[in-house]
Amino acid sequence: MKETAASFIAKSTIKANDLEHRRKINFNISRYNAVVPQGKQQFADVMQAREHAKNIKWRAIETLDQQLEEFELQITKRGAKVIWAEDAQQALDEIGKICAEKNCKTVVKSKSMVTEEVHLNHYLESKGIESIETDLGEYIQQLDEEPPYHIVTPAMHKSKEDVAKLFTEKLGTQPGLTPEQLTLVARQKLREKYIQAEVGVTGANFIIADIGGVAVTENEGNARLSTAFPKTHIVIVGIEKVIPSLTDLSLFWPLLATYGTGQKVTVYNTVLSGPKQPGETDGPEEMYVILLDNGRTNLLKNPQTREALYCIRCGACLNACPVYKNIGGHAYGTTYSGPIGSVITPHLRGLNEYKHLSYASSLCGNCTEVCPVRINLHELLLENRHEAVVEGDSSLSERIAWKAWRQASMNRKMMNAGNGKLKNWVVNKVFKGWTTYRSELNFSQKTFNEMWQEKNK
Amino acid sequence: MSARERILAAVKNSQPEHTPLPDIAFLKEPVLASKEQFATIVQAIGATIFFVKDITEVKEILQEKFQQLPRKITSIAALAGIADVNWIAADPHSLENVDLAILDARLGVCENGAVWLTENEMVQRVTPFIADSLAIVLTADKLVATMHAAYEVIGDSQYGFASFIAGPSKTADIEQSLVLGAHGPRNMFIFLIH
Predict the structure, then answer these.
(1) How far, in Å, CA of A217 to CA of A224, rounded?
(2) In A233-376, which residue ranges form alpha helices assigned H by DSSP?
């Protein structure tokens, strides 16, 4: 077994039995579940809105090269610089170069999964640059030296008591602060950093081809401050995030808000299309947009998995997934967790190393049911399993087991061989894997064939 | 070949054939803007709304309720007596201690309570986000029913920076409990002139 797979199974086994962890996650997800139906009320017809969104992304991905060139052309006209990066290292090198040029000591970062994907914080630290997460959830995770647990709610696995304790340990605050007080502490600490930082780094929720814009949505205002104060603003974004037109946001803003947090629309929805213009008094002097491939063209090349590029990273499939709810976001060992993570990670980082994630699913289809852009997630998980087998990545024992199963199933005599007791013994005692977490199987004493013959006598 | 050329070539070689999209009619019925709906939703997302007749009444309310706030700024000339108007060219960092910023908005969206501000209304990009409280003056004829209608209005205009703002800054990152005032304004007031 691969090390990644072994580590995944070990971590999930521990987490699945951690009742306190399950309690916190179920509590937090239940609050999400309570508000999403309210958000959905704003759509006259939710299903139609979702189909419409899928169509927009479909068209965007179908014409991705033109969309990207149009985006580059338009935003360059307004003075931003576009940089293309094939992989994480190229992206990091470019950011490193910009920071060195600006003599940067402090970077303020607003929440961005792509920066997690390329491990930006780690890289900046290695260059002696302080990198501060400004989203409250990310700030908490950074204090605790943990990666984000969830793509929308980074500290979802922590209770308010956990956060209060963490602040006491790391920041020396009074013990037992309330969420209001804790938020105020972070607000004050981070204000100093916005002013101090030479460079602000953000992701993008969408990049808009027709006007050459970068769209950023948030509730806290940290991304706003991270892009307004520092003299240099760097956006790093996956190439699949493109939408054709500014007007498409009228659908995507509300859709992302509702499926992400249950809101009608988030507090701040901003479109940035370039640095400070001549005659303007405020805004960054320079703006860079890094367009990152890092395996996305692999997904695009594959006609089956291509639609995974429609994802708008709302996190709904994580919240809906019975596996995620029990093993949590960290067990996956990947930047993108939950069903979407299990679908895309094998293509971004190697099928052989990450195919095991495709089996971390009950195939209940709830992820597909809740996806705002209607990605067939559970079918894509099956597709990944299929591809792993076709590419010869399945294990020898698995291949033998399926061969034997196939032979037995297609042969009436073998099906009828042995009685129920023997079958019980084989499954429950010989293959102990079955009974580790399950009650014993109890086969019928009569075979189906015997029952059929009796009935039709 | 540069990274740009290689990525674009990879994209081009991997793209699917152009296919017609399924036809789905969207929003057939026009929806009418309603200031009552706007007010209800604005309050639900944590802001306070004042219905006023004209800018004089805005002035009166500001004087009555916000007299005590030490630093008030505005970009609205008619409010010059009440708040500072001489900050247009100031260093944005000096706005750090603003208690109340009073700004115009381009439009308001009834279905979700968001108001649209471009750089023109903000004056400085950071203004509506750094102030402790934000007050917006909006005339009722600038209300539109839906986000779709809003984008029809703003779709063609040119600006480098603009934002939809829906209520005060908030977070629910700690145990999903809602806290107003994460990094941006802790209060938002909307004066709707009708």
Answers:
(1) 9
(2) 249-261, 296-301, 316-320, 322-327, 338-349, 351-354, 366-370
Instruction: Give the model confidence (pLDDT) of B31-68 as tens digits.
Output: 788 999 999 999 999 999 999 999 999 999 999 999 99
Q: Are A134 and A162 in contact (CB under 8 A)?
A: no
Query: What are the CA-CA distances from residue B35 to residues B53, B108, B177, B192 (Å)?
Result: 14, 10, 29, 9
Residue B166 is assigned to a structural domain of this protein: yes
Contact assignment for B183 to A187 by CB distance below 8 Å:
yes
Apex A123 CA angle, A315 and B126, nearest 5: 65
Q: Which two tokens stand for residue A283?
A: 């805004």
- CATH architecture of the domain with range A42-294: 3-Layer(aba) Sandwich (3.40)
Q: Give the number of C-alpha atoms closer than 13 A to the C-alpha of residue B176, restricted to the C-beta side.
A: 20
Please check whether residue B20 lies inside any domain of the structure: no
Q: In sequence order, what are the residues at sequence separation of 6 or more whose Cβ sits closer than 8 angstroms to the Cβ of residue B55?
A: B76, B78, B79, B137, B193
Which residues of chain B make contact with A271, given a CB cutoff of 8 A? Answer: 161-163
Q: Domain holding B122: CATH number?
A: 3.40.50.10420
Distance CA A53, CA A259 (A): 13
Question: Is B8 a domain residue?
Answer: no
Contacts 24+ apart (CB under 8 A), B53-59: B53/B193, B53/B194, B54/B193, B55/B79, B55/B137, B55/B193, B58/B137, B58/B191, B58/B193
Secondary structure of residue A310 in the 3-state scheme: helix
Note the ipTM here: 0.78
Can you give the pTM of this predicted structure? Answer: 0.85
Read off the tokens for A437. 């977490």
Contact yes or no for A159/A24 (Cβ under 8 A): yes
Q: Which domain holds residue B120?
A: 32-193
Query: Does a structural domain hold residue B9?
Result: no
Give the Cα separation of B139 and A258 in Å (integer): 28
Q: Is B42 exposed, middle or buried (0-12, 13-18, 19+ CB in 10 A)?
A: buried
Phi, psi of A273 (to 5 degrees): -130, 55
Token code pair at residue B136 = 């917006």
- Coil vs helix vs strand at B84: strand
Of A224, A245, A300, the CB nearest to B129: A224
| Sheet of A206-208, strands arranged across | A242-243, A206-208, A213-218, A268-272, B161-165, B115-118, B107-109, B143-144
Q: Tell me which chain A residues have a C-beta less than 8 angstroms from the C-beta of B41.
A: 264
| CA-to-CA dists, residue A411 to A398, A402, A443, angstroms | 20, 14, 18
Question: Measured between alpha carbons, how far is A90 from B121 in angstroms, rounded to an integer?
Answer: 39
Q: Does B163 contact chain A (CB < 8 Å)?
A: yes
End-to-end CA distance of chain B: 60
Q: What's the pLDDT at B73?
A: 95
Sign of CA dihedral B83, B88, B89, B91: positive
pLDDT per residue as tens digits for the range B108-158: 999 999 999 998 899 888 999 999 999 999 999 999 999 988 988 887 777
- Indicate the domain borders of chain A: 42-294, 410-456
CB-based contact B14 A301, cutoff 8 Å: yes
Question: Are B124 and B161 in contact, with CB atoms under 8 Å apart?
Answer: no
Rounded Cα distance, A337 and A344, in Å? 10
The minimal CB distance from B175 to the residues A85, A179, A227 is found for A179
pLDDT of residue A84: 98
Amino acid at B161: F
Distance CA A341, CA B138 (A): 43
Which residues of chain A neighbour B168 with C-beta distances below 8 Å?
A: 267
